[in-house]
Amino acid sequence: MKEDFLRPPRTVAEYAADAVRVIGVLSVLIAAVWSTPTDMGILALALPALMLPRVLGMRGGLDLAIGVTVLVAAASNVFDLYRSLSGWDLVVHFVCTGAIAATGYLVLSRLGILTPQESAAFRPRIPIVLCTVIGLAASAVWEMIEWAGRTYVTDQIFVTYDDTIGDMAMGGIGSLAAGILVAFVRLERRRPA
Q1: Given 30, 55, 57, 163, which residue has the most CB atoms within 10 angstroms?
Q2: How far is CA 191 from the centre of its chain?
Q3: What are 188's strand-pairing partners?
Q4: CA–CA separation, 112 vs 106, rounded Å?
Q5: Residue 38 vs residue 127, higher pLDDT
Q6: pLDDT above 70 coverage of the chain, percent
Q7: Are 64 and 29 in contact, with CB atoms under 8 Å apart?
Q8: Residue 10 has what DSSP assignment?
Q9: What is the pTM of this model?
Q10: H helices of the chain, where?
Q11: Is 157 left (phi over 0), alpha (psi -120 to 50) or beta?
């Protein structure tokens, strides 16, 4: 993992994914100076998700897609797009939860908990089911964080029952789509022999 994180980028997608990571770090610093602590915290919460694909050695295009998705999700909160654009919240939950589910599958396979894609024992049904479960679990945790934020930090966080259920449903559907992707598309870049 350390080698993957420190490896210089080789493709346009890898350079672009690294640029998204730099934008993520800069956005936290900018929010620390010119915005609210809540905005800074939201953007900082995205940083681990921006770094993880690089650490895992994900393919450049997937790394870039996940980075953009996570950064857009965080920025949408900061710029209040979830309230001002009807349906935007559902789109972001679909895409972002799917990205998290696919990344979660790779993390668990690296830990030896799930079957790696390159294993002879790998079957397409495995990630289809487990990415969906990972995504639904991540959705539940995220909704609990939103609830806690509204209850204990600020009432500026929008939380209703219908919003929570809709977000989790779209996250589950996005995770199912991610599972189908993981079933048929290699997540990790090829290692040199």
Answers
A1: 57
A2: 24
A3: 58
A4: 10
A5: 127
A6: 97
A7: no
A8: -
A9: 0.88
A10: 2-6, 12-34, 37-56, 60-78, 81-84, 88-110, 125-152, 161-184
A11: beta
CB 88 within 8 A of CB 71: no
Tokens 């799917």 correspond to: 98
At which residue do the structure tokens 């989790």 appear?
168
Kindly state the average pLDDT of the residues 80-106. 94
pLDDT on residue 172: 97
Separation of alpha carbons 93 and 78, rounded Å: 16
pLDDT at 164 (0 to 100): 86
Domain ranges of the chain: 1-79, 86-193
> 70-77, long-range: CB within 8 Å, 24+ apart, which pairs?
70/24, 70/46, 70/96, 70/99, 71/20, 71/23, 71/24, 71/27, 71/46, 73/46, 74/24, 74/27, 74/42, 74/43, 74/45, 74/46, 75/27, 75/43, 77/39, 77/42
pLDDT tens digits for 38-53?
899 989 999 999 999 9
Q: 43: buried, middle or exposed (CB in 10 Å: 19+, 13-18, 0-12)?
A: buried
Tell me what pLDDT residue 95 has.
97
